[in-house]
Every structure is written in C-alpha cells, then in structure tokens.
Design a protein that fits this description.
The complex is a heterodimer of chains A (227) and B (516). With 227 residues, chain A is of the alpha/beta class. A five-stranded parallel sheet of chain A has the order 2-1-3-4-5, sandwiched between helices. In chain A, strand 4, helix 4 and strand 5 form a beta-alpha-beta unit. Chain B contains ten helices and eleven strands. In chain B, helix 1 crosses helix 2, helix 3 packs antiparallel against helix 4 and helix 8 crosses helix 9. The interface between A and B is large, with 48 and 52 residues.
Chain lengths: 227, 516
C-alpha cells in the first residue's frame, strides 16, 4: 500500500514520534498535526487514507475533529485515548471513529490495528464472496459457512450478525449500532440478545469460545471482528 | 445543643379550685349585705324606689367583680333583703300589698337582666384581651419560627407560645433520627407512651389522652410534605373547645419551620457534595491524563526499540525490555489507584446489564494476554452459567486482578484454575493457584486497603487489587473471601446474585443453510 497516507494528530511530541516510527516501519508516509484545527487543515491538504487522533487535544476533545472530518471523508479514524470511560469511547465511535486504542499501547498492536483499518478502507469485505478466518470459510454468495470443510448451521440472525461483523472487520461496532442493524430501530434494551447471539457464534466458529480470537469483546462498548 | 424535648418550666396548671367559686358567691352575699347595712340607717329618708336602685347597683358591682352566677345570687338575695328589711311589714317576708309584689317581680327581672348583661360585657372584655394577647403571641411565634436556625429554637418558641395560655402547656417530640431523645420523665400530664407517639406519627391523625382534673393531652402529628416530622403534645382543659383550631394552626406553623430547616440542610449537603464531586473528578482526570502521557511515551519508545528492523545488542535489549515492563507495571498501579479513588469516593455507580460471564472472562483474559503468557489456565463451567446482571467493566477488573494475582504469587509451571459453581441464589467463582497460599492468620486482612498477602515477598504490588475486588463484588451484592484449599495453593472465592434473568426467546426455526 504505497500511497496510503496517515495523518497523526497528537499534541505530545514523544508519542507522535513513537507512532510515526511504527507507521514508517510499515512503509506508510506520515503527516503530523498538533491540534484539532491544525489536523483539519492538514487533512484538507493531504487527503489522508487513515487518521490517528488523540482525544486529549488542547483545543478540543477530538469528537469535534471527527464531526468536521466525516463531513467530507470516509477514511477510517483510529482514536488514541488515556483510559477514559466507556461512555467517552461510545461517544467518539458514534461520532464516526472506527477504532480506539488505549494508552499505553504496544507498537505491534498499533500496527495491526492500522493494517486492519487500511484494508477495510480499500475494499469492503462484505463485497467479497468468500472470507476466510481461522479454520472457517464464509461464502456470502451461497450463504454458506464451513468450518474445517464441514457445514455449520447458522440461524438467520446469526448469519446476519456474522455478515455485519465480518463486513466491518477491524472496526469497533457499539452495542447500539449492532442492535439497530440486526434487530431494527426498535431493538431497545434487549442488549442481552446481542450478547447471547455473539456467544452462539463463538461456540460455533471459535476454537475456544472463552478465549475468542476473532469475535473480540470491547467491554462496555461493543464488539470488533478481527480476521 | 439543647435537647429537642423541652420540659415545661412552670408548674402544671390546676383546675379552678373550689374556694374560688365559694369566694365569688361570698362576694355576692357580702356586697348585698353591705348594701343593706349601709341603707338601713337612712331608711326613713329614702323612698322604696331609691332603695331598689341601690340594690340594682349592688348587682351591677357583683356582676362586674364575680360574673354571672354571683350576679344571679345577688339579684335573688337583693330582692329578699329588700322585702325583709325595707318593705312593710318589715322583718318579714310577707307581702301586704299586691303593688309590692309587682315591685319585687320587676326588681328581680331588672336585676337579673342587668346582672347578666354586665357580666356578659365583662366576659367579652376579658375574652377580647385574651384574644389580643393570643394574636400577639401567634405573631411573635411566626416571626420567631421564620427566623429559627435550629430545631431546638423551634421547640423553645413553641413552648413559650403555649405559656401565654395559663391553662395550657406543650412540648415538641421529634423522630428518633432527628436528635437524641431522652425518655420523658415526670408526671406533669405531658408524658405520652412511645407506642401512642408512633401511632400518631405513622397515621397522621391526632389523638387525645384524658388526664385527671378535667384536663386532657392532645397529641398532634407534625405531617410534613415528604415525611412525618414529629408530634406536638399539648396539655389543656378538656372543655376548652376553642383551642382546637389554634392548635392546628400551631402545628402547621411548626411543620413549616421544621421542613424549612430540613430542606435547607439537604440543599447545603447536596451543594457540598456537588462541589467536592466536581473537584474530585477534575483531579482524577487531570492525574489520569498527566501521568499516562509520559508513561505512554516511555512504553512506546522502549517498545519501538525492541520492534525495530535491526536487532539490539543483547545488553540494550534487556534494558529496553525492563523499561517497557516497568512502565507497563507503573501504568497498572496508576490505574489501580485511580480505580480505588473512584470506587472509594462515595457511591459506586454500577452500569448493570445482563451479561454472559464467559464473555466478561474472555475479555479479561485478552487484557492479561502478556501477564498470563506461558501459564496453564483451566476454565471450568463458564459456559453453563446463566446471564448475570453485572457491570461488565468493573467485573472485568475483578477477574483481571484475581487472575493476575494468582499468576504473580505462584510458580510459572503451576496451573491456575477459574471455576464456577452453582450456590442456590448465588453463583460462586473461584480462582485457585498453586502457590504457597495466603498467610492463614491474615485471610480477612488481605482485602484491606494497602495490605499484601506476603509482606516480605519480592513480588511488586501495592495491595490495592483485592481491596478493589471486594468493593466491586460487594457493590454487586456479593461476598468475597480468601482461603487455602486442603490440596494446597491459595484460592479467592466470590459470589454474585443470580437475580431474575430477562426472557430470551429462541429464534424461530428457519435455517439459512442451503445444503450444497
């Protein structure tokens, strides 16, 4: 991915350095900004394919940047935050961020998240006919799921949920977003349904349902599918 | 502070004594006698009509001084004396002329009417004076209650108000949680059994207890808008029916004053709490941000060195690993401190939702990936548990702390077991390791703040983990304990209530699957 530019908006010089180092080792060109306003100007100039955004900027809480940025770009946004409340995380995700990483973070983890988001930005997975993860193969055109070659039976809701999660791989989906997409706008308070169905998918498709490798929990926030 | 129950400071009133009545009638007799004695020497000079006038004057005097009853007596006595002493035949009650009979009848009727009218005027004058005194006292009371800054001041004002009525006495009783209440001793008619007080306060209806000497004790509830604020006890004459509206007005005034004091106190407490809460969260988030920023840089820089394209010389690599791990541990400690500050700073606010335990444990294991790397971990019975209504974020901290502790205090090759057991209305979780276990004499203390199971040990930690676990588990209505199982190692067990899980309708059958 030679022409995928990443915009890093972070007011702390040392952390910006760490992020730049990690991205350049992935072969990604990096542009930097230190504030919300500077980030918006730089985004307009360089048209980044991915934005890494610190939440504790001196001139705004980051949600303002996402609002303005989403008005004209659908490039993924990865948020960096000191451990904040789940309420804040849901807030930036609802505003249009795709993923968040809690400080302090490992370089390897940052690189993996960036890769996943860039991959999703280039081509949506749910447009691909066949997706493979672990020993599972999902054929969306045939609506077929196989595990180690054996057919796995899914209910319609399980299949819809699987399609959503796989299609948004790398992105954190909040409970509310998933409930609305699977059960419709009237889903309301039935978030335990969502948790139970994710549990079903784990039991059918994960090697160890208690230690999932693909259907990951973002506690208090939602779920993230990792290929 | 003064005691909320005020003892009446003047002796209890007594019913008008028999001698008082006697004195009034004696006065009537005396005045009539004196009139007769004064007129007698001048009798030849005075006409009978003049004599009648003088006796009527005597009746007026008696009516003014001694009231209605005495005036009636004076009227009758006056007619009798007039007949006996002045009307011929003298010194006899006989009547010689019919015209004298008419005189007696007219004189009696006029005496009675004049006496009653005069006595009535006197009563009205007294009543007017008393009303004025009462109105002034009510006005003073209202002013005092409006300015009262404490409950004892209210009680004092009420007591003083009732003293205006010389035949009434009162005191205020407050609910037990509003101040120390000493059992009210002394038999002055204001001692009321506790049971009666409770009934009145609970029902909101006043009641009356009879006392000796024609007195009674009214117990009036002080019903506030949100709760009962006590009772008003008033001892007064049982036949004093005019007092009831006054007492009701008094009770209403007192309730208003007590409620005002109560809500002022509530408002002040709420304001204080809001201010300290704002200060606390500002401090915490500032600390959280300011400490984490350099830690993130430190951790990230060390990790960058380790993950760089060129491998580091061995010595540098070891140092970089140490810097990274120490930064990570420091971050964990800051996190624990902030958690504890949040949890201990007042109410723990739970965001409870129905959760499969397996998912919460799974998320904890993901967070502990590096801490538990290379450790054998056995999970037992997780998938079989029903949904539990828990705050997933906080329970994740509990599982993380317990599993991290279990790993920290046991040999690397020993297994860690996380098991769940059904315990009636509760679900019990156990985290067991293969270490040396807890000191048997400190099984309770390990949950205290800044206590460590092994004080001498070289394992790093601050003794916050288990204290945080206990706060969170107890906020969920569960209990936590530590023990050393007979087969060795240490174990921390905690329970969570099962509650009533919401209904879950299994999806109608209808497979998507189209067999190929």
């Amino acid at each position: 991915m030679p022409d995928a530019t990443v915009l890093v908006i972070e007011d702390e010089r040392q952390i910006r350095h760490v992020v730049r180092l990690a991205l350049e080792r992935e072969g990604l060109p990096v542009v930097e900004a230190e504030s919300c306003a500077g980030g918006l100007a730089e985004a307009g100039r360089s048209r980044p394919d991915l934005v890494i955004l610190d939440l504790g900027l001196p001139d705004g809480d980051g949600a303002r940047f996402i609002d303005a940025f989403r008005a004209w770009s659908s490039a993924p946004v990865l948020v960096l935050s000191a451990r904040s409340t789940e309420h804040d995380k849901i807030g930036v995700l609802d505003a249009g961020a795709d993923d968040y990483l809690t400080k302090p973070f490992a370089v390897g983890e940052l690189q993996a998240r960036v890769r996943a988001l860039l991959r999703r930005g280039r081509g949506r997975l749910d447009e691909e006919a066949i997706v493979r993860f672990g020993d599972v193969e999902v054929d969306f055109s045939l609506r077929e799921v196989r595990r180690s070659g054996d057919l796995v039976k899914l209910t319609p809701i399980e299949f819809r949920l699987l399609g959503l999660l796989v299609g948004q791989a790398g992105k954190v989906m909040t409970h509310r977003q998933l409930l609305r997409l699977v059960w419709g706008p009237d889903a309301g308070d039935n978030s335990h349904y969502l948790r139970i169905y994710v549990g079903h998918l784990r039991h059918k498709l994960e090697a160890d349902p208690a230690r999932p490798r693909h259907f990951l929990t973002e506690t208090g926030v939602g779920y993230r599918f990792r290929l | 502070m003064r005691h909320p129950i005020l003892m009446p400071s003047v002796p209890a009133p007594s019913p008008p004594a028999f001698p008082v009545v006697l004195r009034r009638y004696g006065l009537a007799v005396g005045v009539c006698g004196l009139t007769a004695a004064l007129i007698f020497p001048f009798q030849p000079a005075l006409d009978l009509p003049n004599t009648v006038m003088l006796f009527l004057l005597a009746v007026v005097v008696v009516a003014v001084l001694a009231g209605r009853g005495a005036a009636v007596l004076a009227s009758v006595l006056g007619v009798a004396l007039f007949d006996f002493l002045f009307v011929p035949p003298r010194f006899s009650l006989e009547v010689s002329h019919a015209r004298h009979l008419l005189t007696f009848v007219v004189m009696l009727v006029v005496s009675l009417v004049v006496g009653q009218l005069t006595a009535g005027l006197r009563v009205q004058a007294t009543e007017a004076a008393r009303r004025e005194r009462l109105a002034r006292a009510l006005y003073d009371l209202a002013r005092e209650l409006a300015g009262a800054m404490s409950v004892p001041q209210v009680a004092e004002a009420v007591e003083r108000f009732l003293l205006v009525r010389e035949d009434a006495r009162g005191r205020l009783v407050l609910p037990a949680d509003q101040g120390p209440t000493r059992p009210f001793s002394g038999d002055d008619g204001l001692a009321v059994p506790d049971q009666v007080l409770q009934e009145v306060m609970a029902s909101g209806n006043s009641t009356r207890l009879l006392r000796s000497g024609g007195y009674c004790c009214d117990v009036l509830p002080l019903s506030g808008s949100t709760r009962n604020r006590g009772a008003l006890l008033v001892l007064h004459r049982a036949d004093d029916t005019g007092l009831a509206p006054l007492l009701e007005a008094l009770a209403a005034l007192v309730v208003t004053a007590l409620e005002r004091l109560h809500f002022v106190a509530v408002a002040q407490a709420a304001q204080l709490e809001a201010v300290s809460e704002r200060l606390r969260s500002t401090l915490l988030s500032a600390l959280s941000h300011d400490v984490r920023t350099p830690l993130t840089a430190l951790y990230g820089l060390a990790d960058s060195m380790l993950t760089g394209p060129q491998p580091l010389p061995e010595e540098a690599r070891v140092s970089a690993v140490a810097i990274r791990d120490q930064a990570f541990r420091l971050n964990g400690m800051v996190g624990n401190l902030l958690d504890m500050a949040r949890l201990r700073s007042g109410r723990v606010e739970l965001r409870r939702e129905w959760q499969p335990v397996e998912e919460v444990v799974g998320a904890s294991l993901k967070l502990l990936e590096s801490a538990l790397a290379g450790r054998a971990l056995r999970l037992e019975g997780l998938g079989e548990q029903p949904l539990l209504e828990i705050d997933a974020v906080l329970m994740e901290r509990v599982f993380c702390n317990l599993l991290e502790n279990a790993a920290k205090y046991s040999p690397v090759e020993s297994p860690i077991v996380l098991s769940t057991h059904d315990a009636g209305d509760l679900v019990e979780f156990r985290v067991t390791n293969g270490g040396v276990g807890f000191p048997p004499d400190r099984l309770e203390q390990v949950f205290a703040l800044f206590e460590r199971g092994q004080p001498e040990e070289a394992v790093a930690g601050m003794g916050l983990g288990l204290a945080i676990c206990r706060t969170i588990v107890e906020a969920h209505g569960g209990q936590i304990r530590a023990f050393n199982p007979p087969q060795g190692g240490g174990c921390v067990a905690f329970t969570l209530p099962k509650g009533n899980p919401p209904p879950f309708e299994i999806e109608a059958a209808g497979e998507v699957q189209i067999d190929a």
